[in-house]
Automatic annotation (TrEMBL):
This is 1-phosphatidylinositol 4,5-bisphosphate phosphodiesterase delta-1. It comes from the Eukaryota. It comes from Frankliniella fusca.
């Protein structure tokens, strides 16, 4: 299975759960396994409930952990979902992953991938889990050598990679590449001078307000758009290269028809372009 996790903003609120006799909606502390402490807010008395509202912080985020079997037809399911203030450390993330590995192994389930967004704490846990630094020979002092653990692979969620590349393209600042520049204005010009049935884009696709619009990222990074951009817009070479790089960085993960060597080639080419 693949383990995926992320936090999303929520409206702060507290509810009573009669099944467990708990007050739900306060921030739960993480234990030594990196998991929230359960049954932490029992509704035993009116005074106890009042003390929770007076002294405890209400959750601003919901942290969700999902498991996705590698079978294409199998759906993902929720392993854990809890309220948080999004304050945690990389060590707690590592402890949670280790506990999940142990629990899965006890039921003959193999976790192959841990996936998350670009949160610095998760990325730190990924780096420490996958790369164990070795002593470098003095002659190699410009290089970093590591023992790579491939039993469990840690990756940044490609959906977040796609939306972050889209946000980078749509921001107001122009990205300079040598004497060339990357700008969404090139795409706007192409849309204004090409029929919609050719590029398939809408104005919403280049609106930066919706920062997690993955469907728009897919459309922007399609080969159709980069090809039209090269034909219809002058001085858009750098923008075309950016779109091709973004296409390789995302399609290498999402296109189910690709062979492993094709995926590696696309990913390496996108890294070279970066």
């Amino acid at each position: 299975v693949v383990i995926q996790e992320d936090a999303t903003k929520c409206i702060r609120g507290v509810q009573y759960d009669p099944a467990s006799n708990q007050m739900v909606g306060f921030v739960q502390s993480l234990d030594n396994r990196g998991l929230p402490e359960i049954l932490a807010f029992p509704a035993t008395t009116e005074a106890a409930i009042r003390s929770y509202f007076d002294t405890k912080e209400r959750s601003e985020y919901v942290y969700c952990i999902l498991a996705k079997p590698l079978m294409e037809s199998a759906s993902a399911f929720v392993l854990c979902c809890y309220g948080t203030n999004n304050k945690f450390k990389a060590d707690q993330t590592k402890a949670r992953w280790q506990y999940q590995l142990e629990c899965a192994a006890a039921h003959n389930i193999m976790i192959r991938v841990f996936s998350s967004d670009g949160d610095s704490r998760c990325l730190s846990a990924m780096r420490e889990r996958m790369f164990q630094a070795c002593g470098n020979p003095l002659a190699w002092h410009f290089w970093f050598r590591a023992e790579l653990d491939l039993t469990v692979v840690c990756v940044q969620d490609p959906t977040h990679v796609a939306t972050k590349l889209r946000n980078l393209l749509l921001r107001n600042k122009i990205l300079c590449v040598g004497k060339y520049f990357i700008s969404v204005n090139h795409i706007q010009f192409m849309m204004d001078n090409t029929s919609q049935d050719q590029h398939k884009l809408r104005e919403e696709d280049i609106n930066p307000k919706d920062r997690m619009n993955f469907k728009s990222a897919e459309k922007l990074f399609s080969e159709r758009v980069s090809t039209l951009l090269a034909l219809k817009t002058d001085d858009a070479d750098a923008t075309c290269v950016f779109l091709e790089m973004a296409n390789g960085a995302t399609e290498a993960f999402f296109d189910r028809k690709l062979q492993p060597l094709q995926r590696i080639t696309m990913r390496l080419l996108s890294l070279v372009m970066e």
